[in-house]
Amino acid sequence: RGELAGERLEVAMNTQDQEDEQSCFSDNTHRDVVGGALGIQNVWLGSYKRLDGSMLQGASLKMLVAAKNPALSDKVSLQIAQSVTNASAIQAPFDREIIGNKDAPGRIRVQKTIDSLVQQSKDLTEAAAALGITKLARAK
Description:
By secondary structure, the chain is mainly α. It has one domain (3-130). It has helices spanning 3-15, 29-45, 61-68, 70-89, 94-97, 105-130; strands at residues 47-49, 55-57. It has a two-stranded antiparallel ribbon. The protein starts with a helix and ends in a 10-residue tail after the last helix. The model has no long low-confidence stretch (mean pLDDT 92).
């Protein structure tokens, strides 16, 4: 499931309680979710956009996986990009996004992000296996 989907989004979706959102006091959850998704993308791509707009580039997990399985590397890249796009669609304030029935527009946006992040976790697990990593720590 991963922390961003499982701990940061699903709990709040299930309870529909503002107290369960990541940043309930600052009302910054919508930005925090995007920041988390971008952080994953930065590590995967080995790049970071500085505040001045310049890019810092280095070694990446994407390149490492591509050396073993180029198609899988591309698949993971696309899934991570989709997660960032979906996270960016979540509107402020987050506590309004999570209330209502399952067909409420905000809940649909958050659920799309959760679903994308869950698939991303599966794809990253597959990428780890391609690198010979088979024992992954489970979040408690």
